[in-house]
Design a protein that fits this description.
10 strands, 45% helix, Rossmann fold, alpha/beta, 6-stranded mixed β-sheet, 304 residues, Arc Repressor Mutant, subunit A
Length: 304
Amino acid sequence: MTVVLFVLLPGVHLLDLAGPAQAFFAAGDLGHPYELRYVAGSPGTAVVPSAQGLPLAADADWPATTADDLLVVPGWRTGEDPRAWPQVGDATRERLRAHHAAGGTVASVCAGADALGQAGLLDGRRCTTHHAVQDELAARHPRARLVRDVLFTTDDRVVTSAGIASGIDLSLHLLAVRHGPAVAARVAREMVVYARRNGAERQASVMLRHRSHVDDTVHRVQDLIDAHFARPLPLADLAARAGVAERTLTRQFTRATGVTPLRYQQLLRLERAEHLLGHGATVEAAAHAVGFRDARMLRRLRSR
């Protein structure tokens, strides 16, 4: 079972932790189980105080992890004095580096990006954090490529989010990449959260990038495409399921999302194929897995 290991530091914000934990827990209820584990990021700490006053029990010893597992560092209360930010233990920094070097993904919420920076994982990579601590993060880690005022960034298996509720957006993105957009959408509905938020720049998740509208008809069609993007989906069938004419559907879909239904399906296929390629699949195998007859169309789409 895939492990999501939360690295807790003193003053951790409860929502930075609870939002992602709930998202992965909900995925388990939908048939994609995760084992949630909690470890103290500072030495000699078994009970981690939260910013909201609730003490959190955490393991002192790190469990064994594999490249398929996910390490997440929730943020903490930063306060007015940056010198009071918690120091990540040497062992924790090494664990974060080693996990990434072994092919694993590391993520942070809010000020948790500083922990990744202390481990050297932000050097030369795009990252973000809460708007209130962007300047401090940039000063602490001048080699990081800070992206301001976006919900989350991804760069070479280093994923950072803006903070507080945006940790949920980050988690939905990771679930979409791992299991497809339909699973992420179901998790969002289960959590009763708005799954279509988007940042100021182009994000990696197709679902989030093209769901920032309020057209219910188009959302229903997107639900169908999300769930069956690897299959042939004739426009006539989509229009019939939506109860509108083909021309009407194309016009509404393009107005709401900026792309046609076919282009949306291609983007979902391309996103999934890129994930498979990143995990060692050949172009031919990835193309067939996402519904292309051969690799030529996938190569053409990637070249764009």
